[in-house]
Amino acid sequence: MSRSSTIRWVLLVAAIAGLGYLGWQRFHGEEHLAQADAGKRAPARTAVPVKTALVEKADFPVYLTGLGTVQGFNTVVVRTRVDGQINRIAFQEGQFVKEGDTLAEIDPRPFQAALDQAKAKKAQDAANLANASLDLQRSTRLGEFATRQQTDTQRSTVAQLTAQVEADTAAISNAQTQLDYATVKAPISGIAGLRQVDVGNIVNAATQTGIVTIAQIEPIAVIFTAPEDQLPDIRAALAAGSPKVIALSTDGKRELSTGTLSLINNQVDTSSGTIRLKAVFDNKDHALWPGQSVSTRLLVATLKNATVIPDDAVQHGADGLYAYAVNQDNKAELRKIKVTRSIDGRSVVDEGLSLGEQVITAGQFKVQPGSLVTTAVASSDPAQAKVAQE
Fold first, then answer.
1. DSSP tag of 144
2. Is residue 352 within 8 Å of 315, Cβ to Cβ?
3. Of 320, 312, 389, nearest in space to 352 by CA
4. What is the pTM of this model?
5. How far is it, in rounded angstroms, from Cα 125 to Cα 254?
6. Integer angstrom CA distances of residue 143 from 135, 153, 155, 158
7. Angle CA 283–286–290, to nearest 5
8. 72, 120, 334, 335: which could form a disulfide with 290 (CB 3.0–4.6 Å)?
């Protein structure tokens, strides 16, 4: 190869190498700038805003919930006990009547006449008895001049008339009772229902139709049911005292009254597997009314120092229940938990959480295990919820 050819070859190789270097530098320089721009545009890692509550220790009431019907503590259909025409109705429908109040008056004249007749008969027999007694005294004073038969006969006459006077006394008492029945009075205190008869109607004791129905509402009763498998717990609570029963509106949102469990029915309903229970309420404010449907809560036990969290912290997953706890680094940790009781917005946790830990109660849909969170603390008691931004 000549010297000139060698020089040309060296220059060609140098040119190719220079062009390759320039191309490599341009390509990788643009890539580096793109990466730098991407780094500038990438957002910084942000914390997820959530609300949390502390895991607490508290006494947790265990309630059995159910449905019940309000019944008058006593319900009486007031009927007449004598026959006659109604002269007066002395009550208003829906009125609260007291025991002994007059409800209706039946024409008393026939009963007054019978009473007067019985009194007159007694006066007559009393006069005959007085005369017979005098005759007996005379016979006794005659001594041997009066035969024994005459004395015994007179003594027998006195005894008969004495018995007759006693019968007259009983007849007067009966006639007075019939006259008293002409005034129909309330046998119990309670609310009078719809009137069944009007003034001027003839009523009699043989008919089943009453004048009015009275329902006692102070106190008042609620009949409700519970599953038969809860019977041992209910019996234990009743044996320990008078378990509290809360009556609520049917939607369970409004408390109506608080009473106590009175009795357990003497048999289980085999068709439904439930036991009937009766609770008694003072009902001074008349919040409960006969025939009303209510929701019930029966306190059967109180768990001491139970681990409690808000219901909002409990989440449902494919593997069961879980909750997010916030660690010291403000990162979310998924904890599998075991919940045994839940009522009034609070749940009892037996496993998975410890006293003093924070659990997320709102914002879980944005959270994943390990997510950085910023927290606002809320009380586990819904009635005392308070938010404080950290």
1. G
2. no
3. 320
4. 0.67
5. 71
6. 13, 15, 14, 18
7. 90
8. 72
